[in-house]
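Shall we go through a protein fold together, starting from nothing but its sequence? Please make up or recall a protein chain and show it to me in full. Go ahead whenever you are ready, and we will take it from there.
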Amino acid sequence: MSRLYRLFLPLLFLFACQKNDEGILLTFKYQPGQQYRYLMTDEVEKEVAVAGEDTVTIGRSAQQSMLIRVVDQDSSTGYYTIEVEMTVVADSIYYPENYPQHKRKKNALGKRSVYTLVMDEAGELHDVRGENERRRIYYEENYKHNRPVFPRKKISPGYEWKKNVFIDIGEDEPLCAKTTYRFEGFETVQNIRSAVISFSSVLEYDWDLTSTPYNTHGYKSWKYQNKSTSEGTIYFSPELGIMVHKKNLLTFSSFSDILDKDGKRMQKASQTVDIETTRLLLEPDALSEQ
């Protein structure tokens, strides 16, 4: 080893440590006119128990094409307006052989939902709009609390942060989902250098569904309890400023106490486990051409 190299080696090491300690700022880097296509896959198993009846297990395998269009960026706030179009491209439902035909749902193949979101560069949502109130609530309840929301400062691997995400389901007070994130490090995913963010969230609430759009059967009373958990990993490209991949395990546990329109009381409990993956369908070269 040369004397000159030995002289500069400590300085090189110090520079590397300082660079690592500086961390990285994770932000979305959307540009108006850009669009990104993802494929979301859900493998679902649902157990339903109705008082006085046997427990039933229903399976579902579905895929949705998700197209994100960047509509605008506000010059004063920096907020993005994006349109999210979700279309079911594959859907199979598996019922037990003795499950009544009249209770079986048709698959949702071809079903399309469009949402308009307003978000900042850190990923925090400031407005959610759907085609109607029911679809807006669906997005709030199912997607809002497991999205990436980054700290507004540089972070390094090992950094952990918490975020309270408020869910507006039409009640007087919004619900609060508690989400914890941790920056695990870097991986190459789909040939894209990605920051690896693990997350977990919990959402619990009681809701009177009697006078809501969900009460399509005209129940006289419908009291509903729900607990939703979400645990997974987000892969985010710091250079491109977009999500590349997401793995998510969702669990929904619910209990309903119902008085139907004939005055008959019915109690129903269910638990749903959803293994969900979302992946970007474009390679970096294609993105750079947009």
Summary: The chain has three helices and eleven strands. Residues 1-5, 11-20 have pLDDT under 50 and may be disordered. The helical segments are 3-22, 133-142, 284-288. The radius of gyration is 23 Å.
